[in-house]
Specification:
Elements lengths: L4 E10 L4 E9 L3 E9 L7 H4 L4 H20 L4 E6 L1 H5 L3 H10 L5 E2 L2 H15 L5 E6 L4 E7 L2 E2 L3 E3 L3 H4 L5 H11 L2 H7 L3 E5 L1 H13 L11 E2 L1 H12 L3 H8 L3 H21 L3 E4 L4 H8 L3 H4 L3 H13 L6 H8 L8 H12 L12 H11 L7 H14 L8 H4 L4 H21 L3 H5 L2 E5 L2 E6 L9 H13 L3 E6 L1
Parallel strand pairs: 1-4, 4-5, 6-10, 10-12, 14-15
Antiparallel strand pairs: 1-2, 2-3, 6-7, 7-8, 7-9, 11-12, 13-14
């Protein structure tokens, strides 16, 4: 697996709702966030009524840009991209704002609606390489729709349907009428019975409300799915609850609680017109799309989950990461794992040494927390739970696995993940967590037995505890345990 360090680099995103500065470093394919700050200036809040950027909002935005410029200099960023979207490009006084920004030492690039759509779609592709359907990027000033398939975005469109423009009392019926007149057949065809990928803070807040109001056990927005019926139920909750109550009951920010009504109306209209099978939230959008756009083709082809898990394993492992070798070692006893399962098994193996520094009584909990709540993309709640269950077994978790999370996954799948974990646990004990000793022995599934083969010079590796773990693994697989030395 190829990796590359880069950065630090930064992006300033001048949006209709907020001005955000994010600095990144780490690996190119899945950058880590060094710094993230947002100022809710509301540049686009009067766009629908006056066609202009409010003077007060411009002053607040320019103050934020001056601060971000100083921070970027001190961070010694290798690259700083500054982009402005719908509010600045559409406002009558947008040029005035840009001139003031340049005078302050910031050179924003005003991107077109089509380019905004393309970059948001690239962000989704970066996080969900298998994305197939339509990306819906909802901002304060505009809504971008872009078809995606086979790792590429198609031609997208930008519509003046941002949450600040349609307002908190937006009509889903009226928005649907606009969509029917504006959305080209290619986008309709790309969306029908497929997935609608939700990008933007207001959509993410809507998904967060779905999770909070339904007691969903995993409060991670990325990868969370909902259908048209559930979206309508959540919209009814929004319509029947004051913004302040949404904020206090469900932990939403003031800004997002005030735009939820608009986001809910836009989403309902999208379900009516595009008729997707489901909607899935993406943590990545325009900013991550900008980073992805800079990548070479071989970097783009890397799996974001595995790259991130490898980076974590290398940082937290005892003797350097050997997760890929660990996965290759246990793979022969899981010959029926399909590519999707094998990918999750490899991710768990890459994380198989992350909790060794924790107190022994809490290593399993620490490892599960890393697997389930890690800052991963390219994975949904089901995948996170499977990795968590694997690591629970790998670190000798006591008692049943987290019952709230367990309800997300079929028991047979959880049991299989437990067998992965038991195999990892045997391998780590046998080899002491070192790659070289592991490479000198092998494991196989033969005629109803889990066969462990050691060289004669390594016979001492098979201690009582190693033998016990061998038997435990075999029992979980419904097999006998056999040792061969030669």
């Amino acid at each position: 697996m190829k990796r590359g360090s880069f950065g630090p680099v930064g992006i300033i995103d001048i949006g209709s709702n907020s001005i955000r500065f994010v600095a990144y470093a780490g690996t190119e394919r899945v950058p880590s966030t060094l710094f993230n700050e947002k100022v809710s200036a509301g540049l686009g809040r009067e766009l629908a009524s006056t066609g202009r950027l409010p003077d007060k909002a411009m002053d607040q935005a320019l103050a934020a840009l001056a601060r971000f410029r100083l921070l970027a200099r001190e961070m010694k960023l290798k690259r700083l991209d500054v982009v402005a979207t719908a509010a600045v490009r559409d406002a009558d006084n947008g040029d005035e704002f840009l001139a003031r920004a340049r005078k302050a030492g910031i050179e924003p690039s005003v991107i077109s609606g089509e380019e905004e759509a393309r970059l948001a779609a690239l962000g989704v592709i970066s996080a969900i390489p298998t994305a197939r359907g339509v990306v819906a990027d909802l901002g304060g000033g505009s809504l971008e729709l872009t078809p995606v398939a086979d790792g590429k975005p198609g031609p997208g469109i930008s519509l003046p349907l941002g949450v600040l423009r349609v307002g908190p009392d937006a009509s889903a019926k009226q928005i649907a009428t606009i969509l029917k007149k504006s959305v080209p057949p290619a986008i309709l065809a790309a969306a029908a019975e497929r997935t609608l990928y939700l990008v933007g803070g207001s959509f993410r807040a809507f998904v967060q409300l779905d999770q909070q109001s339904s007691d969903y056990p995993l409060h991670i927005v990325h990868g969370h799915a909902l259908d048209a019926i559930r979206a309508r139920e959540v919209r009814q909750l929004v319509r029947g609850t004051e913004p302040e109550q949404l904020k206090s009951r469900f932990g939403l920010s003031t800004t997002r609680s005030q735009t939820l009504g608009a986001a809910a109306a836009v989403l309902e209209a999208l379900f009516r017109v595009l008729e997707p099978a489901r909607a899935v939230a993406s943590a990545y959008g325009l900013r991550e799309g900008l980073l992805y756009d800079h990548l070479a083709a071989d970097r783009r082809a890397e799996d974001p989950l595995l790259v991130a898990a490898l980076e974590a394993g290398e940082k937290l492992g005892r003797f350097g990461d050997h997760g890929a070798e660990l996965d290759a070692w246990i793979a022969p006893i899981f010959p029926d794992d399909d590519p999707s399962a094998s990918r999750l098994r490899l991710a768990a193996c890459l994380l198989a040494d992350v909790a060794w520094e924790a107190h022994p009584d809490f290593r399993a909990l620490w490892a599960v927390d890393m697997g389930v709540h890690g800052n991963w993309v390219g994975i949904d709640a089901l995948g996170r739970t499977i990795i968590g269950r694997t690591l629970w077994a790998a670190f000798g978790g006591d008692g049943p696995f987290n019952p709230a999370l367990a309800q997300l996954v079929e028991q047979r799948v959880l049991d299989h993940a437990g067998r992965w974990g038991a195999a990892i646990r045997l391998a780590q004990r046998l080899s002491g967590g070192t790659e070289r000793l592991l490479s000198r022995c092998s494991i196989a599934l033969e005629e109803g037995e889990v066969v462990l083969r050691l060289k004669a010079k390594d016979r001492a590796l098979y201690s009582d505890i190693a033998a016990r773990r061998h038997r435990q693994l075999a029992s979980l697989m419904g097999c006998g345990a056999r040792l061969e030395v030669g």
